Amino acid sequence: MFGKKKQQPQIDKEQLELIENAQRRIKQKKRLYIHFVVFLLGAVFLILANTVLGIGDNIQFFGIDWFVFAIFGWLFFFVYHVFNVFITNKFMGKDWQKQQLAKLVANQKERIEKLQQKVEKENPIATQTEVISEQKTNVVKGLTLIVAAGENDAIGKDNKLIWHLSDDLKRFKSLTNGHHIIMGRKTFESFPKPLPNRTHIVISRQANYKVPDGVIVVNSLEDAIDAARSDVQAFVIGGGEIYKQAMPLAAKIELTRVHQSFDADTFFPQVDTSVWKETSNTFHDKDEHHDYAFSFLTYEKK
Ligand SMILES: NC(=O)c1ccc[n+]([C@@H]2O[C@H](COP(=O)([O-])OP(=O)(O)OC[C@H]3O[C@@H](n4cnc5c(N)ncnc54)[C@H](OP(=O)(O)O)[C@@H]3O)[C@@H](O)[C@H]2O)c1
Questions:
Q1: Whose Cα sits closest to atom 31 in ligand 1?
Q2: Is 2 part of a structural domain of the chain?
Q3: Global confidence as pTM
Q4: More exposed terminus of the chain, fewer Cβ within 10 Å: N or C?
Q5: Residue of 187, 257, 267 with the most ligand 1 atoms within 8 Å of its CB, for mutation
Q6: In testing the pocket of ligand 1, which one of 159, 163, 186 has its CB within 8 Å of the most ligand atoms?
Q7: Residue-number span of the structural domain to which 20 is assigned
Q8: Is 270 domain-assigned?
Q9: pLDDT along the chain (302 residues), means of 10
């Protein structure tokens, strides 16, 4: 029970193959040696059979005794045997096959590595395409983010907008008119009252969040999208939390880029141009009604 465990001799696979190979070579050489001895004895016997015992005394081919042909014939087979043992088996035997196979495998590995390097070079594009197509599969047809953001993506501070740009509000009204507008609870509370001629969908985690008649309250973005499914173009109108969650699902962004950076506490997520393609860009300079220059940009998911 407490005795030492007996050590078993361990021979690895490679060593075993070497031993087997050596044994095989010894057998081949032994057989060749026996063949040599038999050939010598046989040759002597054939000579004696003819010259001493007189067997086939009168059989000659081209004036040469038959045993000479027999000995040369046998010699030919012996040489063939020697060739097999020292040439064919040594250079074209199992070892040779293995070497060829190893060479072939090494060549294939090299080719695979080159191909891998090529694929890796192209991989960022492939990966990007995968991400884009993955995002595309989740896109909700017609779902549009509408937002006004500064150069630093600022969109609000203290639950208020940071600027007043009348032409931007007009654009917001004309684009969203008659549609569903999806918003976070905080954005909803930033309005003095619901906007006319639009169906408001407010997202809140609160169980009994009270809203005026006609306003729909849901507990998740998915439920908000579901509530707006009859609309060919539902708008997500903010704020920061909801934009962030809705961006991967949106098909379009209507962005008013205000050409100034602002101090803010709420931001729009960065527009990733590998995912989004700018399809329209209209510049509006500052004037007596607008304190800042801005551009109306439209992005569509690639
Ligand atoms: N510049 C623009 O175009 C623009 C547009 C809109 C808003 N804004 C500004 O953005 C700011 C407000 O944005 P915000 O990010 O603070 O708030 P928000 O996105 O408007 O609302 C956040 C609230 O939405 C609810 N909510 C968020 N994710 C939810 C989810 N997955 N499930 C259920 N409920 C969820 C929660 O409500 P509960 O706490 O009730 O659970 C949360 O507190 C304001 O300053 C506003 O003026 C700017």
A1: 220
A2: no
A3: 0.63
A4: N
A5: 187
A6: 186
A7: 13-92
A8: yes
A9: 46 69 86 95 92 87 90 94 83 70 83 83 58 64 98 97 96 98 98 96 96 96 96 97 98 98 97 96 96 98 94
